[in-house]
């Protein structure tokens, strides 16, 4: 059964599935009509207890599609947002994560196309969902309802480890500084 989350809400993934080894974070959106194409990109940052990326290699995006240990993998870039279902997915294998990995932040950002500065004001029906990778069952979903008129990047959600459990928190925080701004905030050398 899917748990529907609101902004700030969280759910334990491993309490109901104690042997959960891997999940898929599926991000989706639709593009409002308007001038030019809109390309959103999903990314993930693997963070330590200090809230900073373990190293630059633990920043997963379209140009670095996997962590060195293959624990977090981007499954491919959808440049249009067309079609049904997830537009982009990031796979996480908990068994391969290093012990110092305390959380994983999932981000979607506007790809700068031909200098066109698009914002989340061009996007609707955005969501993130967590799927049990083996069973293929959706465990939780967060539908972003905010108008990101001025934001060029958005933290959708976060997996985090607490008291031996993996949990998911719905965040929905926008940034006007784009993916580079988020990456810098979490300690990536940009």
Could you characterize what this model shows?
It is a single chain. A hairpin with a 4-residue loop joins strand 9 and strand 10. The chain has a single domain, classed as Lipoxygenase-1 (Sandwich), CATH 2.60.60. The chain has one helix and twelve strands. It has 190 residues and is mostly beta strands. The mean pLDDT is 88.
Any descriptors?
190 residues; Lipoxygenase-1; six-stranded mixed β-sheet; six-stranded antiparallel β-sheet; mainly beta; 1 helix
Task: Set down the secondary structure blueprint.
Blueprint: E1 3-5, E2 10-12, E3 22-31, E4 40-47, E5 59-60, E6 72-74, E7 88-93, E8 103-110, E9 123-132, E10 137-143, E11 153-162, E12 165-175, H1 178-185
Number of strands: 12
Number of domains: 1
Q: What is the oligomeric state here?
A: single chain
Percent range for β-strand residues: 35-45%
Radius of gyration: 16 Å
> Main beta sheet, described?
6 strands, mixed
User: Helicity range of the residues?
Assistant: under 10%
The fourth-level CATH homologous superfamily is: sav2460 like domains
Tally of alpha and pi helices: 1
Order of strands in the sheet with most strands: 1-10-9-3-7-6
* Through-space gap between termini: 40 Å
Instruction: Please name the CATH topology.
Output: Lipoxygenase-1
- Taken from the alpha-carbon principal axes, the silhouette is globular
CATH domain class name: Mainly Beta
Q: Give the topology string: H per helix, E per strand.
A: EEEEEEEEEEEEH
- Alpha-beta content class: mainly beta
């Amino acid at each position: 059964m899917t748990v529907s989350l609101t902004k700030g809400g969280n759910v334990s993934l491993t309490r109901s599935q104690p042997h959960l080894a891997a999940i898929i974070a599926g991000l989706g959106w639709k593009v409002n009509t308007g001038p030019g194409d809109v390309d959103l990109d999903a990314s993930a940052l693997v963070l330590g207890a200090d809230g900073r990326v373990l190293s630059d290699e633990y920043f997963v995006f379209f140009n670095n599609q996997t962590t060195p240990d293959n624990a977090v993998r981007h499954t491919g870039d959808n440049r249009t947002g067309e079609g049904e279902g997830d537009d982009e997915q990031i796979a996480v294998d908990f068994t391969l994560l290093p012990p110092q990995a305390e959380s994983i932040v999932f981000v979607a950002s506007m790809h700068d196309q031909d200098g066109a500065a698009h914002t989340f004001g061009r996007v609707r029906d955005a969501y993130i969902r967590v799927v049990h990778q083996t069973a293929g069952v959706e465990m939780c979903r967060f539908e972003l309802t905010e108008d990101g008129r001025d934001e060029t990047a958005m933290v959708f959600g976060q997996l985090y480890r607490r008291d031996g459990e993996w949990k998911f928190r719905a965040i929905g925080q926008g940034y006007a500084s784009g993916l580079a701004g988020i990456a810098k905030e979490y300690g990536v050398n940009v």
